[in-house]
Description:
Layout (H helix, E strand, L loop, with lengths): L9 E5 L4 E2 L2 E2 L1 H13 L4 E4 L11 H15 L5 E4 L5 H11 L6 E5 L8 H15 L3 E5 L1 H4 L5 H8 L4 E6 L6 H8 L5 E3 L5 H6 L4 E4 L6 H12 L3 H17 L7 H10 L16 H20 L3 H5 L1
Parallel strand pairs: 1-4, 1-10, 4-5, 5-6, 6-7, 7-8, 8-9, 9-10
Antiparallel strand pairs: 2-3
Helix pairs in contact: 1-2, 3-4, 4-6, 9-10, 10-12, 11-12
Amino acid sequence: xxxxxxxxxxxxxxxxxxxxxxxxxxxxxxxxxxxxxxxxxxxxxxxxxxxxxxxxxxxxxxxxxxxxxxxxxxxxxxxxxxxxxxxxxxxxxxxxxxxxxxxxxxxxxxxxxxxxxxxxxxxxxxxxxxxxxxxxxxxxxxxxxxxxxxxxxxxxxxxxxxxxxxxxxxxxxxxxxxxxxxxxxxxxxxxxxxxxxxxxxxxxxxxxxxxxxxxxxxxxxxxxxxxxxxxxxxxxxxxxxxxxxxxxxxxxxxxxxxxxxxxxxxxxxxxxxxxxxxxxxxxxxxxxxxxxxxxxxxxxxxxxxxxx
Length: 308
């Protein structure tokens, strides 16, 4: 399975896990996935922080993977997040799930345990060595309380089976520095607000929260960047930025789920404890920004960009 590195590029939607009466709403999830496919995103990521993977029971987690793989039918790549910090647990989950319907497994830095840099490297070395699966390394310091340093990241990128790196450090020098040391492993960001800049600095794509809500516009932004269309890159970034910024006004995916429920009426805004539903001020902000987004898209003829 190792070696399929070139597929983890472009727009990968970190899709939400919709709930209804506190159970996973598979029917709504299927509809959301179809929207993503029609919008031409490059892939789907499930069970990460946006997908509330840590809030799922073991049986729910495995059922989610099975159902999403069945819906996708290999039409676009599926990346499955493994919500564990224990090396042995990560290996066990991947070993159980590894099959041809899963393109890669997203493995975040070992949170809570806060290992040294050598421990982080060994974590990924053991996982890639023992599973022989495609692994996407994710550096997300503000959730994990550790930062994978550039030197460590470059060592990890040289491991067989590392299919991509996802960067949520907020450091826009990150893709340039890593690309100078490794020219073949894709480098993606996880920050919608700085996506265009990250891409122009050497990045290869994004694991996007916002593409749950506006997939066509995110795909259009990716296309404009790839084509060197600076005018439309700037126009789309300006349009997208306020919505992207608002997704962090409360803990992800609280604002996102509420925004999605406004657009796709079949989806509830519910999140799992210990998260709680969006506050009144967040709801008001989302309504304001969604109206502004639609108005500006029409005024500046951005709809035609997303449809070409």
